[in-house]
Amino acid sequence: MSTQKSNNRTLIAIIGDEDSVTGMLLAGIGETIKETGERNFFVVDNKTEDNEIVEAFTNFTENKKDIAILLINQHIAERIRPLVDAYQNAFPALLEIPSKDHPYDPEKDSVLKRVRKILGE
């Protein structure tokens, strides 16, 4: 497990459907860097290719050093499940969340799978 420092990690990022991202932006998590246009959110819709989701996930987990928590809708995480399951860094913390149209399934959650494995369940 990674021992990365958390001192400069102050942002929450989200990879989600339009409703989830909009809700989080209304809650105040939105951040856009004027110079580069970089954002801490990525909206996924029916036309979004899996490789675009992988690119956003990789950018948020490897390149951006200011993100403390990455939220991802569980149904979107399913589209890149091998990458999500392989992610083990402490920062940013990865949390799978439900969406309006897709209920949360604890059996699919990568973090809960790891916890169960540790506990021997």
TrEMBL record:
Keyword Magnesium on entry: no
SUBUNIT field: V-ATPase is a heteromultimeric enzyme composed of a peripheral catalytic V1 complex (components A to H) attached to an integral membrane V0 proton pore complex (components: a, c, c', c'', d, e, f and VOA1).
Keywords in alphabetical order: Hydrogen ion transport, Ion transport, Membrane, Transport, Vacuole
Top-level division of the source organism's lineage: Eukaryota
Official protein name in the record: V-type proton ATPase subunit F
Topology within the bilayer: Peripheral membrane protein
InterPro entries, per the entry: ATPase_V1-cplx_f_g_su, ATPase_V1-cplx_fsu_euk, ATPase_V1_fsu_sf
